[in-house]
Amino acid sequence: MNISKHEQRVLHELALGGAIHYERYENGKIRDITCYTRDGHILTDCTLPVFLRLKKRRFIRSQSGRPYRASKLGIEAVRAQLNQR
């Protein structure tokens, strides 16, 4: 499956335990997102268009109003990368 470089970076961080926090408008649409790594740092590659594309492809999901995390399909779609510790 074709995944852009930015989508790949975001999915990799989410697969390692990161989360995407969001804010909604009054009508329920998402207006702002912030992607956090598992260490608490903010990932700047995660923009609203990247988020919407990942959501449309069902690579990320949210349950019961919690932050978005990588779904099983998203974890399978991301290519293996070395963990840079």
From TrEMBL:
HAMAP family: UPF0386. InterPro entries: YjhX_toxin (IPR018654). Belongs to the UPF0386 family. Pfam families: YjhX_toxin. This is UPF0386 protein SAMN04487991_1001. The lineage of its organism: Bacteria, Pseudomonadati, Pseudomonadota, Alphaproteobacteria, Rhodobacterales.
